[in-house]
UniProtKB/TrEMBL annotation:
Name of this protein: LAME_0A07910g1_1
Domain of life per record: Eukaryota
Keywords: Redox-active center
PANTHER family: SELENOPROTEIN DOMAIN PROTEIN (AFU_ORTHOLOGUE AFUA_1G05220)
SUPFAM superfamilies: Thioredoxin-like (SSF52833)
Source species of the chain: Lachancea meyersii CBS 8951
Amino acid sequence: MAYPKISIRFCTRCKWNLRSAWYLQELLQTFQDALAEVSLIPGEAGEFQVLGYIDANSAAIVLWDRKIDGGFPDSKFLKQRVKERVLESSEVGAHLAREVKSTTLVTEEDEKEGSSECHDCA
């Protein structure tokens, strides 16, 4: 297996397939050949995690977990985490150094209006 790599684990029952594919596309577009692999993995009910692997001997680095971090990441914030924690390089994604205004795509007001739990998996 080639490294570094990113795995996106997502719930298919929650219909997060397209969201996961969008994150995959964003990571590939930004980091191009700096990442050896970006994969989509159908996961457990209600699961959405982005995991990073530096090499074959390293443990998975949790870059984002929907249940812990709350919702889904802003793509720029996710890219910053990949750059800082997995790539450890200042040569790729230089535009990511600018400050991120929000870590999530969903605001607190949005969460108050709707349930944060998945209806299909709850």
